[in-house]
Automatic annotation (TrEMBL):
It comes from the Bacteria. This is Uncharacterized protein.
Length: 115
């Protein structure tokens, strides 16, 4: 690969195009918004993202066997699990097992992980 200035300019332009949405968003973020984001704890960020996903998906599960199922805005247990529920990935291993032909004849599930 020849690193002539013309080729480098082309690479830079391609990168600008690729990241254009991020660059536009970044240009519209105020210093106060940046400070709030930087001071947000992981738990707070997770809760905020869950609220945003809930609004975006209108409370509906997006994938998996429960796709389309409406979830209440305030979950009965940990609110931090709501994101994975909305995405359809909550307890994915258990759900896959429940819907698998290998376990279809079973009548009971023993949940050893419930806390």
């Amino acid at each position: 690969m020849d690193n002539t200035p013309l080729e480098l300019d082309n690479i830079i332009e391609l990168e600008r195009e690729f990241f254009s949405d991020i660059l536009t968003t970044n240009a519209n973020i105020t210093p106060d918004m940046k400070a709030a984001f930087r001071n947000e704890t992981i738990a707070e960020r997770r809760q905020r993202l869950c609220r945003e996903l809930y609004q975006e998906f209108e409370g509906r599960v997006m994938e998996g066997p429960f796709r389309g199922l409406f979830l209440e805005p305030t979950p009965a247990w940990s609110a931090s699990d709501q994101c994975s529920m909305l995405l359809g990935t909550y307890e994915a291993e258990v759900v896959a097992l429940l819907f698998s032909p290998a376990t279809a004849h079973r009548d009971h599930l023993v949940n050893l992980g419930g806390g």
